[in-house]
Amino acid sequence: PAAGGERIRIEGILFDGAGSPGRDAMIEVWQANADGVYASGEQAAAVEPGFRGWGRAFTQFDSGEWSIDTILPGPVLYPDGRMMAPHLALWIAARGINIGLHTRLYFDDEVDANEADPVLGLIEMRTRRDTLIARRVGDAPLYRFDIRLQGEGETVFFDV
Fold it and tell me: Is the separation of the CB atoms in 17 and 54 below 8 Å?
């Protein structure tokens, strides 16, 4: 409740390799606060009380739907000093996946920041970058982000 910034909700569906809803997956979310500060390490003292910077969402067994209520994160410094666009780091674990999958979620209304983001810039094919962009739904503080584990439109995953 003490966290500053715009309150948002992110909703989506996790699809397995066959295009069916992923029934029992966990999506762990890590993020900075609205000022671009993480609640860990040396920066933790600069974060407002109660902001943990992480959470977990579980897919619904029948539909693969997942959601999380959070705040819109601020931009964060990349190790080389460039700014990264506001984003969430996601770690996905599910039955049948031997290791967790790492990906990111960026926001479609951060066009200039996304264009300059050093991590998005590592993805050579622009159409693949689009798999990491959450779309704002109308004027509501709601974003849509589906995750595809394999196949057409497969979400980009990072080897971390």
Answer: no
Measured in residues, the chain has a length of 160
Task: Decide if 9 contacts 21 (C-beta within 8 A).
Answer: no
User: Which of the 8 DSSP states describes residue 119?
Assistant: T
d(CA 13, CA 149): 11
In DSSP terms, which residues pair with 12 in a beta bridge? 66
How distant is the alpha carbon of residue 139 from its chain centre? 20
55-71 as b/e, with b when 16 or more CB fall inside 10 Å?
Answer: eebebeeeebbbebebb
CA nearest 52: which of 27, 30, 76? 30
Q: How far apart are CA 97 and CA 14, in angstroms?
A: 13
143 CB neighbour count, 10 Å cutoff = 22
96-141 pLDDT, tens digit per residue, is 788 899 999 999 999 999 999 999 999 999 999 999 999 999 999 9
